[in-house]
Amino acid sequence: MTKIALVVLDTLRKDYFDKYFKWLPGIRFDNAYTTANWTVPAHASLFTGLYPSEVGTHAKHNVFDYPEECLPEILSSAGYSTRAFSANTNITGHFNFDRGFDEFISPSRMAHLTDENRVNWRKFSNESRESGIYKYTKAISRCFEGDVNTVKSIVDGIRVALEQGGTKSGVKYGGTLEAISELEGTTLSQKEFFFFNLMEAHEPYEVPKDYKTTENIDQTKAVGDLIYGHSDRKNLIQAYDDCSQYLSDIYKSLFEILIDKFDYVLTLSDHGEMLGEHEMWGHEYGVFPSLVHVPLVVSGSEVKDQTRKDPVTLIDIYQTVLELAEIGMDGSRRGQSLFDESDERKFLTEYTGLTPWSEDILKDNGYAQKIDTYDDERYGIFTGTEYHYESLDGIINSEAEATQDVEAELATLVNNLNKRDVSGTVIPDEVEDQLKDLGYA
Fold first, then answer.
1. Residue 333 and residue 302 share a domain
2. Count: domains in the chain
3. Worst-scoring range by mean pLDDT, 148-152, 156-160, 192-196, 262-266?
4. Where would a tag sit more exposed on the chain, N or C end, judged by fewer CB atoms within 10 A?
């Protein structure tokens, strides 16, 4: 009878984790790498034990519609209670990431995005042609129609109205405060899997006033080495630092509950953030070390504190959870248990091209001709003790000069990918505002 918590600290860089999370106990993996530069493909790997291109969930197709069973579905079939709390708009039922979960929870400000029984107020407001008392009357009448929850819809409408002219961020600071409240009110089963996505380190870099040490900043809206927002490097980096410090403190409160309720707690980031390296910002492009080198810690009452240097990948999370759940690892998927050490592993990170919103940003700012430059596939490879990656110029880079052997190994791994041929990224109208709040659309 095992209880497992999987916690994604979205967008937290490894170096900032090292700076602020020294308190976190367990096995710390110094050479952990994600499979992608942003949330959707990284989570596809977490839940399948495959590379994003093999799952078919990435920049060119953001729906999690992989036809084989995913991790929550396998756990549910094995008798586990499966729950999720996601503060990330991209990881919701809109994109099929609620597959296999008995309960999929979003923060109250995002509830109308995941609950089909509530009025979608932002969509109603954008589409309504009425104004004044007529718009108000139509809005109230919509709440009493038979296909919606009247009380919850009215509460949502009041909340959206109050937010007009102020922040429209989907969650307060990042979601951990609400995650704590949800967890404290949840009675767990003997066999439990609980997934969390927390957004404190993600743009728009909002923190409580006690943590704020810099002026308000605009979102970067960066694509490649082009930036269409805040260009004050010092303040932008400080804002990210403030978020990382706050995340450490608030996650410590959540972790104390988790470690008391669960046998194992896996804490990790899905990707990092560019903070001016190579003149790039955000996480819309590339497989640079700052994007793909991520924190990863396995904690538990039976887990001894240690730091490991052997290379691991987020694909290993899938196999590790199956092992902890006593289901047995899946030979049809990639990866290995995090409890197995190997210094000779080779694995990939992937960049599958621009998202539709990145293309729109380039077009809107007069750089449509740059789309082809950034829309190529790029790969990184961890081999032995070094990470090599393809840069904007198509040259493999690392701390040491790349050799022909490295180039050949990269080509071999890429050729061995069993890519799923899909296309067509979907952005529902009701989530577009939330994506804008996060600096995407």
1. yes
2. 2
3. 156-160
4. N
Examine the domain organization and report whether 89 and 16 are in the same domain: yes
Q: What is the pLDDT of residue 129?
A: 55
Task: Please check whether residues 314 and 270 belong to one and the same domain.
Answer: yes
Whether 428 has a pLDDT exceeding 70, the answer reads no
One domain for residues 383 and 341? yes
Q: Do residues 269 and 335 share a domain?
A: yes
Confidence of residue 218 (pLDDT cuts 50, 70, 90): confident
The range of the structural domain enclosing residue 186 comes to 3-107+170-437
Q: What is the pLDDT of residue 384?
A: 79
User: Do 145 and 219 lie in a common domain?
Assistant: no
Residue 112 lies in a domain: no
Residue 243, CA atoms < 13 Å, CB-side half-sphere:
28
Between 392 and 231, the more confident residue is 392
